[in-house]
């Protein structure tokens, strides 16, 4: 029996040492796993934050600053003066004109127009000279062919021509520089 006790006593320290080594390995292995997964966790947390920050920077970076630039800065020289007044619209009575013939059948244009003005000052003078403005518009519209003004490019071109025609000086010194654009409110070709 003595021999078995000596065997147990010889193996007991080895078994205890092995248990300690296993415990040490488990302790050192567990932090190693968390150390390896820590960068993954940080990466997963920082990616959405970085994406949100980048999106916010892009969105806010493309907007104009809320405060006006200082008088000496370069942006004030390039910036257009912003009008705080709303535009004024003067509606003209509808026009019905015969268009230039392209074939044997006559065609006509019925159009509604509005003048967009920068401010209210010239409205009364424009209304006073409305017969002269209507005459200019009628002469211009009646010189057109249906094929010229049927497309959207043709309508844009016609609008620009109308703006130039209406902006010509009127009798009595009416300031026509206040005219921003001529807008169509209806447009029918038959």
What does this structure look like?
This protein is an alpha+beta fold. It has 2 domains: 64 residues; 102 residues, Band 7 domain (Tetrahydropterin Synthase, Chain A, 2-Layer Sandwich). It has 6 helices and 4 strands, in the order H-H-E-E-E-H-H-H-H-E. Strands 1, 2, 3 and 4 form a 4-stranded antiparallel β-sheet that branches. Helix 4 runs antiparallel to helix 6. The protein is elongated and about 120 Å long.
Tags for this model:
single chain, about 190 residues, alpha+beta, Tetrahydropterin Synthase, Chain A, about 15% strand
At a glance:
The chain has six helices and four strands, in the order ααβββααααβ. The protein has 190 residues and is of the alpha+beta class.
Class inferred from helices and paired strands: alpha+beta
Kindly report the CATH topology of the largest domain. Answer: Tetrahydropterin Synthase, Chain A
- Low-confidence parts lasting 5 or more residues at pLDDT below 50? none
Mean pLDDT: 77
- CATH class label of the largest domain: Alpha Beta
Rg, Å, rounded: 42 Å
Topology (SSEs and partners):
Blueprint: H1 2-61, H2 74-78, E1 88-91, E2 95-98, E3 108-117, H3 123-128, H4 130-142, H5 146-149, H6 152-167, E4 179-189
Helix pairs in contact: 4-6
